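Good morning N.,

You mentioned wanting to compare the apo and holo forms, so I went ahead and generated the holo version with adenosine-5'-triphosphate. This is what I fed in:
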Amino acid sequence: DESSVESLDYEVIENFAYWEEQAQRGKLYVWYYVVVKWFFALLIGIGTGLAAVFINLSVENFAGWKFELTFWLIQKSYVVGFLVYLLINLVLVYSSVCIITQFAPAAAGSGIPEIKGYLNGVDIHGILLFRTLIGKVFGSIGSVGGGLALGKEGPLVHTGACIASLLGQVTCGCAAGVAAAFRAPVGGVLFALEEVTSWWRSQLMWRVFFTSAVVAVVVRTAMGWCGSGICGHFGSGGFIIWDISGAQDDYSFEELLPMAVIGVIGGLLGALFNQLTFHIAYWRRNFLHKRGNRVKIYEACLVSLITSLISFGLPLLRKCTPCPEYDPKSGIECPRAPGMYGNYVNFYCSKDKEYNDLATLFFNTQDDAIRNLFSAKTSHEFSAQSLLTFLVMFYTLAVVTFGTAVPAGQFVPGIMIGSTYGRLVGIFVVNFYKKLNIEEGTYALLGAASFLGGSMRMTMSLCVIMVEITNNLKLLPLIMLVLLISKAVGDAFNEGLYEEQARLKNIPLLGSRPVYEMRRMTAKEACGRRVISFPRVVKVADVVSILQSNKHNGFPVIDHTRSGETLVIGLMLRSHLLVLLQSKADFQHSPLPSDSRGSRFIRHSLNEFVKPASSKGMSIDDIHLSSDDLEMYIDLAPFLNPSPYIVPEDMSLTKVYNLFRQLGLRHIFVVPRPSHVIGLITRKDLLIEE
Amino acid sequence: DESSVESLDYEVIENFAYWEEQAQRGKLYVWYYVVVKWFFALLIGIGTGLAAVFINLSVENFAGWKFELTFWLIQKSYVVGFLVYLLINLVLVYSSVCIITQFAPAAAGSGIPEIKGYLNGVDIHGILLFRTLIGKVFGSIGSVGGGLALGKEGPLVHTGACIASLLGQVTCGCAAGVAAAFRAPVGGVLFALEEVTSWWRSQLMWRVFFTSAVVAVVVRTAMGWCGSGICGHFGSGGFIIWDISGAQDDYSFEELLPMAVIGVIGGLLGALFNQLTFHIAYWRRNFLHKRGNRVKIYEACLVSLITSLISFGLPLLRKCTPCPEYDPKSGIECPRAPGMYGNYVNFYCSKDKEYNDLATLFFNTQDDAIRNLFSAKTSHEFSAQSLLTFLVMFYTLAVVTFGTAVPAGQFVPGIMIGSTYGRLVGIFVVNFYKKLNIEEGTYALLGAASFLGGSMRMTMSLCVIMVEITNNLKLLPLIMLVLLISKAVGDAFNEGLYEEQARLKNIPLLGSRPVYEMRRMTAKEACGRRVISFPRVVKVADVVSILQSNKHNGFPVIDHTRSGETLVIGLMLRSHLLVLLQSKADFQHSPLPSDSRGSRFIRHSLNEFVKPASSKGMSIDDIHLSSDDLEMYIDLAPFLNPSPYIVPEDMSLTKVYNLFRQLGLRHIFVVPRPSHVIGLITRKDLLIEE
Ligand SMILES: Nc1ncnc2c1ncn2[C@@H]1O[C@H](COP(=O)(O)OP(=O)(O)OP(=O)(O)O)[C@@H](O)[C@H]1O
Ligand SMILES: Nc1ncnc2c1ncn2[C@@H]1O[C@H](COP(=O)(O)OP(=O)(O)OP(=O)(O)O)[C@@H](O)[C@H]1O
Ligand SMILES: [Mg+2]
Ligand SMILES: [Mg+2]
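and this is what came out, ligand included:
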């Protein structure tokens, strides 16, 4: 498993090949490069936007047909309705899990831990393939349409990243995914900034923002186009926008206490969620899923059956509530018209003027359920008992569903859970502070924020996303307060959801700051003892045996000066060595170095050595060399990276860590203290005018 | 002048003192440290919020009284009204310029270039003193209240930074300032992120956001408290919030063309603004202001007189326009009630049902003028002729005012200019596309964004600020489009306003990416040739003479091993040497190194050597040593930084630049290539669990 993880290398290798390329390019190339990057950003935006529209359109239509059919059937028979409902869900989930297990195993789960890993500097095999993209798109249509307790937001982020990876800009894609999922361009950028990328170049920001905005425009255009009804059920629901700008936008100081309580609940439930999912995922990974794909399929189908049973069965047990009087100001009908989206679902009620509050939550798409929970001017729509039942059941379902072999996001389930207990608190507040103008929906929103904060531990990006999806800037300070508390409470127990999952998947994330112990360690203590290095001109047989004897990916190259002293001349990557071995073009008979860089004729296509190639898919065992070849030599000088970053042996590990992390490195050489200083570089030396 | 600029040093100096301190602290200290930091963040938020409220309250009241009095007087005599108006403005500006010239010279201008410099790693003398804070607060009340063509936003950012600097967290303060100026917490964070800081630690982000949100809460609370009218004129105007959420929030594709035109105009006018202000400021700096403070005072007073004359005189020349019919939907009265804020100012009009459109813009606080320009449902309020007149006059005033010795921001003038031509374009669009639902106010908003984009070249933060101040998320893609164009157009001509001004002020900013030429240079070529270094044990007389002979701030320290080879043992800072020389406590008679770090008793208080001290205010010439002292020795080993970052001599300057810039360094040692590699550090070596 470990072998599927490999570090990424962003180093510029200033070797002979690089200088050749630079010489050919000249300054105009920079412009060309900029234009291409922006064009790619545009493409990523459009691509991610369209993918998001496609997923939403499909999900909404599948779910829409499903509910329409079921509602039509239950007017005749609840048993038939239930069976059909169960069957449709099962088919959708089955198709999803089949796509994942048979076609694109890397597309299971949310994908965010993997993307996080990628942008932290580790490549997980298969995570950004085209195949994964396809699997993710179609798989998430099945799993979300099939009514499981999961969302399509995580998968959308992964989808965006896959699309962007085709064009080499994963960060852009990640932001685009969030922007598409929530129609929140600013939130998308902040998400990429805060949660995902480890090292950020400020010139990247504007481009990422541009991509997010393109996504927003694409999505808006598509929705405008579908507004007339030509897209079936899409247009009325879908993209999660809970516009509660009409809701309570002021608050009094008495309310801060219940809001703080929501924050604490969010922290506790969120941390519990992380803990439970960690253990279950651990068990799944190490026992259940080891038994093969068939078990994964059975498992997903079983979860689908349970989910259908609960979401259909529980509302049946619930007594209906009489409708409130019609309030022309809010314009909300009770019960809602058949085949429509909205509050007050009439389900298994005997009389006409009744509704089933549990069905309003359960027997609905998640987006609609959340919209109902967030809705203003609907106090007393939900009884505390129903909310509590729903909370417990849905929380359990979300925990159990997490980790099945289907594409699954945790945003929407998190919002569901959070807004349920938020509304529950809201009910008590409304009862308690009778005279205040309080909306239960506001509390539901704060609950949602608190649960996400307690589980994912995102801060600023989450805050902005919540503001953007609810389109209400005035709630910002309240959301902040709640997030601050829930994150602090959650942090007391465990790490964030994505970090936990990354740990489970053996993705070695480097945190943003060095751990405390590093202060007392030196670079020398941290690194391995015996260095495996190459001489400048090396026998092919030696290369082969060294590469076979270990799994290291970088090797120092040592040369001798004329006076016989040794000198480190650079770093040779395993991947480049493999290219050299495979092509054989640069083998030479003489064990002497070729004359000088420039004059030497390099037979190899240089392009391969400009960038650190990934050794993915190539291994030393795949290369077959004749015994003649093995007797030849290679001069490594033109291909190596002549100036890797170096640190003196007794530098503390904190400083090394900062260097490694801030510059996104893969290898650092630990060297002895220098004998003298050739010069000092200060700010003044770097102030070179263009 | 150059000597007032000094680099900042964020290096951790892992010397003996540091280890002592670490040993004393232990792990609990980390918690204490975190709590203190958050508490400080809270304080900064509250402080900046209160400062902003105080400035706004004062400005609004001064301006309110001024206009009230003038309006009351002109009902009797326009001449008397004019004289009083002129006099009040003059007094306010005079007091402002006196505060600046006599008391806090560093508080002149916007302060943003200096803060930018600070966070880029250069300390400009006096820029963050308490005295500067006071000067900034009171000075900007005078200059803004006095009706000059400048804003209070830049000064507020500086104010925030000063407050934060007292507690050692300038970045937080900078974000808080923006948040306070625009009531835009997210925009504040992004501003700090994008425009100001050069190196960002992701753990900082949440704290910065927290501070911004605290500011938002403080400001909101104060405004709520003043809502009842107890704060005089404050509450009705002030904090720039132009809520146009009722305005056009949809757009058709035909409109994209005029919007692009606005972007181009913004780019051109913005670049022109930067160019003109650069030249005028250059002239001021090198000729006018060299003549002393009296000239500065005369200049500011003259500018005030001209501004008063134009803003009172020009509307007089303008014929009044008959009022439009009263529209109960918009609820806007014409002419506005006396003593009120609003559209349709009746100024020098003969009849009752008339208003003066030029006075509506000119004879008003800037905030109100902008509110009028942004207002929806008021098509045809302004004639094209008036807008053009206003644009030309105000643009000229803004250029001339920029650089006078008063606190001055460029945000609000920029918004004024931009929204004027934006509305002008809007008028044509409304006439041209008659059937569409178009609001001139929307175009004014886009114009404002375009001018700021064309001048300041900020992108994402500006976008978010515009969205937050107009409280309308739906315009985001349009604002983006306009900004993208105006920034691109502006970039074709010159740098952003703040970069230009920083250049003028000799603030050596390091851009976010290395310039192209650096690719072809090596570290050795960039640094100075002859290194001035110290031996480990050095004679005091030598220290003095070396420090006197140059202005360098860091010196390598070279020791000899037993076998006689040289060895670089660290970097000694000038500031630390000065401390040693001044206290004399660590002088020793023997020229031999003291035994070892640990056993040696250091007489000096170690605290001074843990952090890189600033040599500000201390110079080698201030230190007086007896001839006995000069014969003594100092062992530098316990005080130096044992592991500065090093680069091999032939590393390309691009890589050195990235190292310097990303880690926020002050000194890098250029050393010879190492003779061998002791070990390699990879990701695996840094994965140490806490
Ligand atoms: N050439 C080498 N000689 C000796 N030890 C090495 C060498 N290269 C790496 N090491 C050590 O071996 C361990 C693993 O090295 P490896 O190259 O596999 O790096 P890694 O952390 O797994 O990252 P990557 O994803 O690049 O493989 C590290 O502890 C490192 O210090
Ligand atoms: N000890 C030294 N020996 C020789 N040259 C040095 C030394 N220190 C610095 N220099 C060179 O002198 C020039 C100016 O050095 P200085 O120390 O003043 O740095 P600076 O860029 O002005 O930044 P600072 O704000 O720290 O002074 C730089 O070009 C640098 O390469
Ligand atoms: Mg490895
Ligand atoms: Mg200097």
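Chain A has a mean pLDDT of 87.

Happy to go through it together on a call whenever suits you.

Best,
F.
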